[in-house]
Design a protein that fits this description.
By secondary structure, the chain is of the alpha/beta class. Among the domains are: 11-163, Toll/interleukin-1 receptor homology (TIR) domain (Rossmann fold); 177-241 and 351-434, no CATH class. It is built from 14 helices and six strands. A four-stranded parallel beta sheet has the order 2-1-3-4, with helices on both faces. Helix 1 (22-37) packs across helix 4, helix 6 packs across helix 14 and helix 11 (280-297) runs antiparallel to helix 13. The longest helix is centred in the C-terminal third of the chain and has 46 residues, at 329-374.
């Protein structure tokens, strides 16, 4: 909780990071002066690199001020995006404190440059109304920054942060779904390759023999394997909420940590897993309903919540209410709907690709499992059985067997994955008709 001034109102320590240069120094000086004077609701103690006293080590003192700060404001001008050791240290320290939840970082944009590739690209920036003329409107820009600070301080004073302590462990903070999928896919490919090498030494010992040259056997085996693979996927998806983990991952990447915490507060710990396990269309509908509920609760002139800022951001940038704008919530609602439509399209497409890839990988495993058990490789021609005494002398024959087995495995897996996805779509259509 922020400390309180003798007058009783809370005060916060704010560090303002900026590039060096005449224009940036003037902007920094004017904003520091205005922030110190804008004390309504929350008193601000602002600091910057200009507070370094003679005799102090510049880098050490700056990092000390950053460490003490509860809010870090980044003045993102064109000069700020030019690589420099000082700015790298400040932005790196700022993002470290943001990840540790020891400070709130607010990028303030004075440029049209794209931010996704910067260290703070995953944060929702603030673009002031008069960002093109910061010297003339420094007081208005300082008020906009102060509004964001007031909003965050009020949420902490009302206990919102403490109430959500249990949510910290429920946020993945990274691409856990993707990394887990890649790990499992890599292990399956390695196991497949090793098993094929083992089988290629002597196919007859593993009951792999050429039974039928008919292409029908190939297509029939592919169909059975594809349906089996897709059935396993659906079983695991419902037992372990795999789709829920996928949707959670993408939602947190889109919203960021702070907005995700607010979303979890609105939904509740008991319902969040069920909500993420919905289809992409139903999930976006729920997110839209939550956004509408939040905007109805807050007045039209109140500071916008972090979740609404993130959901209403246009090209990653949240545009604050313009001077004289009657009710910005209408504009927010339109931006949120547009972003939700894009999120639904992207999520559905990515989920479909993951299903197809997983179906192909599982089909590879099922085909190899069926080689010695169910004669799934009975259509493979050209396999040579090598006597045990001559296996060391016939490396070329073993290599030929491996190539034939590998080609059959890949072709069967590709066709099985395709047929399995078709079977899944047919079942989905039948379920819709039945309802």
């Amino acid at each position: 909780m922020p400390p309180r001034s003798p007058a009783g109102s809370p005060f916060v320590r704010v560090f303002v990071s900026s590039a060096e240069g005449n224009a940036d120094d003037e902007l920094l000086t004017s904003l520091l002066r205005e922030l110190q004077q804008t004390q309504e609701g929350v008193r601000v103690r602002a600091s910057s690199r200009l507070d370094v006293q003679p005799g102090d080590v510049m880098s050490e003192r700056r990092l000390e001020l950053l460490e003490e700060a509860q809010f870090i404001v980044l003045l993102v001008t064109p000069a700020y995006l030019v690589p420099a050791p000082q700015l790298y240290d400040e932005s790196f320290k700022a993002m470290e404190k943001s990840r540790d939840h020891t400070a709130i970082v607010i990028p303030v944009l004075f440029t049209e440059a794209d931010l996704p590739h910067t260290p703070f690209g995953n944060l929702v920036p603030l673009r002031p109304n008069h960002w093109q003329h910061p010297k003339l409107f420094s007081a208005e820009i300082a008020q906009e920054i102060h509004k964001v600070i007031v909003q965050r301080v009020r949420s902490r004073l009302t206990g919102a942060r403490d109430e959500t302590a249990g949510f910290q462990s429920r946020i993945s903070y990274g691409s856990h779904f993707r990394s887990s999928w890649r790990l499992l896919a890599g292990l399956l490919v390695l196991a497949t390759t090793g098993t094929l090498i083992w089988f290629s030494a002597s196919p007859a010992d593993h009951h792999i023999r050429h039974l039928s040259p008919s292409p029908f056997t190939f297509f029939f085996n592919s169909l059975v394997i594809g349906v089996a693979a897709m059935s396993l996927i659906q079983i695991f998806r419902r037992l372990f909420r795999v789709r829920g983990a996928f949707h959670r991952n993408l939602t947190e990447e889109w919203l960021g940590i702070e907005a995700s915490e607010e979303l979890y507060r609105e939904v509740g710990t008991q319902r969040i897993d069920d909500m993420f396990d919905l289809s992409s269309a139903l999930l976006t509908g729920q997110l839209g309903a939550i956004a509408d509920r939040i905007m109805e609760k807050q007045g039209k002139n109140e500071p916008t919540s972090r979740l609404i800022q993130r959901m209403a951001a246009e090209d990653g940038v949240f545009r604050a209410p313009a001077t004289g704008e009657q009710d910005p919530r209408i504009r927010y609602a339109m931006a949120i709907q547009r972003n939700l439509d894009q999120f639904q399209i992207s999520t559905s497409a990515q989920w479909g690709r993951y299903l197809l890839r997983t179906s192909i990988l599982l089909s590879m495993g099922l085909f190899i499992l069926g080689l010695p058990l169910l004669d799934t490789g009975g259509f493979i021609p050209g396999l040579v059985d090598i006597p045990p005494a001559a296996r060391r002398l016939t490396a070329s024959a073993q290599t030929g067997n491996f190539v034939f087995l590998l080609m059959a495995t890949v072709l069967t897996a590709l066709l099985a994955g395709f047929l399995g996805s078709i079977a899944r779509d047919v079942v989905a259509i039948m379920e819709k008709l039945r309802r």
